[in-house]
Amino acid sequence: MKHRLLMLVPALALAAACGQSAGTAESAATPISPSAVPSSGAQAVRTDVRVTMMDACDPETFSAVLGPGGCVRSGGVTFDDFIAQLTKQGSIGAWRFAPGVARVQVGQTFDAVNRGGEAHTFTEVAEFGGGIVPDLNRLSGVPNVAPECTALEPDDFVAPGATYHEEVEHTGALKFQCCIHPWMRLEAQATSR
Length: 193
Description:
- This protein is α+β, with helices and mostly antiparallel strands.
- About 20% of the residues lie in helices and about 25% in strands.
- The protein has helices at about 1-5, 10-20, 60-65, 80-90, 135-140; strands at about 25, 50-55, 95-100, 100-105, 110-115, 120, 125, 155-160, 160-165, 170-175, 185-190.
- Strand 10 (about 170-175) and strand 11 (about 185-190) form a beta hairpin.
- The longest helix has 13 residues, at about 10-20.
């Protein structure tokens, strides 16, 4: 099993390396801009929607498999436990987008903040599917790769601590997933203002 899992290393290492040099990612400290407070004294409404990208990787065991910097957080789930949970359940709850469901308006921006220790993507897809790591697709039961995941650019990878911005440009149902960990998903309903 571990020998086959070494096939994960090149894709995940590439993803982590790309995420660390993401050109459009900003510091996680980027503030969310609230709209002006209405004259009626009502509470301000956020113009942006914050999405937290989370994982619980253990730096020692993930970096041993993925290479230096494969995970840059304190403590967490060992790589072997990650694979065991994924094999049993098809997903791992600690690897997720929060919220998983959102309501947005055209013109708002999703601010996807990576609070985990691994690189992730926040990729809009027409339909949920697999990502760029075949073994993770197989273990999570999504063998058909989402076409959008095959056209990633270096700035699509969000390094730990970075923020990715995605403006809502049209109404209707929206779907976002991580193209590394394809069970990390968000569904949104976008309306006009």
